[in-house]
TrEMBL record:
Subcellular location(s) per record: Cell membrane
Coiled-coil boundaries: none
Entry keywords, A to Z: Cell membrane, Membrane, Transmembrane, Transmembrane helix, Transport
Signal peptide from the UniProt entry: none
Source organism (scientific name): Cytobacillus oceanisediminis
CDD domains associated with the record: MFS_ExuT_GudP_like
Source organism, top-level taxon: Bacteria
Major facilitator superfamily (MFS) profile domain mapped to chain residues: 13-400
Protein name: MFS transporter
Length: 409
């Protein structure tokens, strides 16, 4: 009976997580396009724009470790429901921002609200899916982000010209609150003991100190920080870059930005399937090589002779990054015990979110410092890609990863 329930309900769980991550990513990605209108309305400089784009990630990063620990301690369901409700409220409030400082505060609180979702969702995947299906489950959930990478540029840029950026935030927040209602009825825990009884998730405490003593966690943290420095650098600044440096209009920006995202959808799904099939060890070698290739194609992007080649190079970069992202974030689900995956992925994802804090601001400062030139910004992203490669090549095999014992209160 338990097996039949698991086989059926795990698909409902992953669909719910997919929907939640879709709404969360739309709320985040839309800011990269809304900032064009916001900067004009609030008269923001490039440096101030970078700070606004980074303020979300400051709050988001701060909640990664607490969010993962709370999911390990109390179960992923309660934490996810709280996270979706909180970020939906602050999405709505984003639409009423009236000044530079108010926008920073609202986006910071928005980040705090959303910060618990990903580590809690990781816990949910580890709870409901067997080990040999977890990369695919993770890639399916994360594909929602790449789908939003297609949808957001088109819907966002078109809607900004019709109903305005404030109304879009109101609508997105309302959809998030409706999703909370859906979660209340259908999102379920699964903690099954050997006797088939449901355990209380609050009895499982993740040994955070022991997790932090594991070298692989630090390798994954650095790799995830580096690859997401590239990811968020491109996502946050590409709309502005295409308008200012490549002289495209807002509609064209929306369609050009969607091309790499389409490649990312295919790459995410394929990466999850491939990683579940590859032998342990070979997957990391391939990921390291892909990170080096990411650096090469970033260089080609910076000096692309036309917008068509620019889109091609960015699509190739997206494919390579997708493989690395799925490998890094699904590795703890396969290499560590289930009791600590929420804490571990929360810690690792902190690196990605600090990249989101730093990279948009750094690019803004560099653009101001070099009189509007983006060349140095691309050089910085290339260095981050090489840092990711080095960190992945240093990851040890699963046999060298210590096991964890769960403390019971």
């Amino acid at each position: 009976m338990v097996s039949r329930l698991t086989q059926n309900w795990k698909y409902i769980i992953i669909i719910l997580l997919f929907l939640g991550w879709s709404i969360g990513n739309f709320d985040r990605f839309f800011m990269n396009y809304a900032i064009l209108g916001i900067s004009k309305d609030l008269q923001l400089s490039a440096s101030q724009t970078g700070i606004v784009l980074s303020s979300f990630f400051a709050g988001y990063a701060l909640m990664q470790i607490p969010g993962g620990w709370l999911a390990d301690r109390f179960g992923f369901r309660k934490i996810i429901i709280t996270a979706v409700f909180a970020w939906s409220v602050f999405t709505i409030l984003s639409g009423v921002a009236w000044s530079f400082m108010s926008l920073i505060l609202i986006r910071f609180l928005f980040g705090l609200g959303e910060g618990s979702f990903f580590p809690s969702a990781s816990k949910g995947i580890a709870s409901w899916f067997p080990q040999n299906e977890r990369s695919r489950a993770m890639s399916f959930m994360l594909t929602s982000g790449t789908i939003m990478g297609v949808v957001t540029p088109i819907i966002g840029t078109q809607s900004m010209q019709t109903i305005g950026w404030r109304m879009i935030f109101y609508i997105a927040g309302a959809i998030g609150i409706l999703l909370v209602c859906l979660y209340m009825f259908f999102l379920k825990e699964r903690n099954v003991s050997n006797e088939g009884k449901i355990e209380n998730p609050s009895k499982n405490k993740a040994p955070l100190r022991e997790v932090l003593k594991t070298p692989i966690i630090w390798n994954l943290l650095i790799a995830y920080f580096a690859i997401y420095a590239v990811q968020w650098g491109l996502m946050a600044w590409m709309p502005t870059y295409l308008v200012e440096e490549r002289n495209l209009n807002l509609t064209s920006v929306g369609y050009i930005s969607a091309i790499p995202a389409v490649a990312g959808i295919i790459a995410m799904l394929a990466s999850g399937y491939i990683l579940d099939k590859l032998p342990e060890g070979k997957d990391k070698v391939i990921a390291g090589v892909f990170a080096v290739l990411t650096a090469i194609f970033l260089y080609l992007m910076a000096f692309a002779p036309n917008i068509a080649m620019f889109a091609v190079y960015q699509s190739v970069v997206t494919v390579f990054m997708s493989f690395n992202i799925i490998l890094i974030i699904s590795a703890p689900l396969k290499m560590l015990s289930e009791e600590v995956v929420g804490t571990a992925n929360g810690f690792i994802n902190t690196g990605a979110q600090f990249a989101g804090v730093l990279t948009p601001m750094l690019i803004g400062f560099l653009v101001d410092a070099f009189d509007g030139s983006y060349t140095v910004a691309f050089i910085m992203l290339i260095m981050f890609a090489l840092l990711c490669a080095g960190s992945i090549f240093l990851i040890r095999s699963k046999k060298e990863v210590p096991s964890f014992k769960t403390n019971v209160s």
